[in-house]
Amino acid sequence: MKKLLIALLTAISFIPAMSQVYNTSHDLPFQAGERIDYTVFYNVIGLYVNAGSASFTTSRTMYNDQDVFHVVGEGKTNARYDWIFKVRDRYETFFHATTMKPVKFIRNIHEGGYKKQEEVIFDHQSRKAHTKKGNYDIPTQVQDVVSSMYFARNINYDLYKPGDKIPFSMFLDDEVYNIYIKYEGKETVKTKYGKFRAIKLKPLLLKGNVFKGGEQMTVWVTDDENRIPVRIESPISVGSIKVDLKKHENLKYPLTAMAE
């Protein structure tokens, strides 16, 4: 259960990627009040079971006199599995409403008997990230694991051809990672909750306790102005996961990617 929820939050945060084609002159594909909910299915013996859930909510506020979006991502095991391994994880990001650069990141996780709290303050003027362990150099367009999802929803995938790789940087666990996502083209994907015309992506995963690394994960995002993830599939260290969009509220644009 612990690995499953870590996989879920990691998967969703890797969905699209940053690139130089990001354009601050156009309207953002999300707004304050947006909420997206996911169901996580886990497969270890050939049968997917409903094992967990995740949600992402977006609001707008002020932080240090800056106009920012505040996104909260939460993941948890279903209550009936709490007696085996209880997970209640909460991730938060505050990113600038215009530049979309993160200014603050918070991680508060409770996994079985393990608890961890982490806070990162981003100083883009000095290009430093400040944590309780020290100060770290960061590149100009670095993102955290949650802000990357929202920043990357601005990417115009029509500018790419299948096989193209889009590089980006992410600050995680006191390190900067330079990774990429590969654009695979467009197709219709059938999920637990409906069919969608989608953009197919393969992010480069970091090797760790959950993922084996490489391009084994596949992600589908809506081929409309919202660019929200609707399906994620990936093998993990034991079994595999499938994550489906369950419901959404207050999308900025109509969800026109629904297929018949």
UniProtKB/TrEMBL annotation:
Signal sequence: where?
A: 1-19
Stored Pfam families: DUF3108
Which keywords does this chain's UniProt record carry? Signal
- Its name, as the record gives it, is ATP-dependent exonuclease
Specify the taxonomic lineage: Bacteria, Pseudomonadati, Bacteroidota, Chitinophagia, Chitinophagales
